[in-house]
């Protein structure tokens, strides 16, 4: 089996593809895997680190606010199309799977035109326009939320899978994690991260909270995002924080950190939510207002409605008193509420998402033999 993955941009598009690729290799060790990404995205660090080869093509999205910039987009489209044809000629994949990013559309369309079975995976509760346009070309559309089904025209192609997460999130135990990270079994541990790129406004709110955390003997793992690490480190210079806060620019060991936490504070990207729920963690979710169709709000609302999370809008962060401090201390002192949120979160987690996707690929392969 030869499988080509196309994804790019942020970790939210890349990590699901890696999780599916890992599942294919475990179930089909001789399978050949190739990734196709954009020329400058995060995929060029994450994919090789996961052990897979990746090729670059020219791709960029439409700029609705600056139409003249779309001249460059059109040029990239022409150059990228030629690159895609060469890659498909050389690799000759049996399956092509797209998990999002500008690069996905042209690769899926060219593969479908050649009669290669194609698949897409939609991570969010509100599907993006790209996947809604691509559904006509694919054999199956994998979705992560039942509510997103109504946005698609070809209902017979839909398969509810959830979001695939790396196996380490499922296999890592909380006791071992706490010991390895230097936390005791009785510590109350809060994990904060603002998504794969970081979130400056949330970082500043976390800084406001640290003196209160120190007073309450709460431990904080603070993942700033690489671009904001120096800014946060400097801002913390006047606060005695080193016995309370573990400060990180980026979390290479996120499965370990997630499993060690009692509470997670995060943006509401689809993959963050998948990782939180597969670990059964209660959370405070702050949707980014700067995303298409406000999809992070709808992701967070699905957890909030189920009792697994507390949804906080970004405008609520302007209050005089830190809203993070209010909820962290409230939940720390209400173990019954915290446990109920944890159980609700675990019920939403889909540890088998990659298995479902693999089984569909395998079933389609049998049908075409």
What is the string of helix and strand elements? EHEHEHEHEHEEHHEHEHEHEHEHEHHH
The counted number of beta strands is: 13
Corresponding CATH architecture of the largest domain: 3-Layer(aba) Sandwich
Reported by name, the CATH topology of the largest domain is Rossmann fold
The structure class reads alpha/beta
Question: Can you summarize this structure?
Answer:
The chain is α/β, with parallel strands linked by helices and 369 residues long. The chain contains 15 helices and 13 strands. The protein folds into two domains: 2-165 and 351-368, Rossmann fold (3-Layer(aba) Sandwich), CATH 3.40.50.2000; 168-348, Rossmann fold.
Structural features, described:
- With about 375 residues, the protein is an alpha/beta fold.
- It folds into two domains: about 1-165 and about 350-369, 3-Layer(aba) Sandwich (Rossmann fold); about 170-350, Glycogen Phosphorylase B (Rossmann fold), CATH 3.40.50.2000.
- It contains 15 helices and 13 strands.
- The strands form two sheets. The chain has a seven-stranded parallel sheet, sandwiched between helices. A six-stranded parallel sheet has the order 10-9-8-11-12-13, sandwiched between helices.
- Strand 11, helix 11 and strand 12 form a beta-alpha-beta unit.
- Helix 3 packs across helix 4 and helix 11 (about 270-280) packs across helix 14 (about 335-350).
- The relative contact order is 0.12.
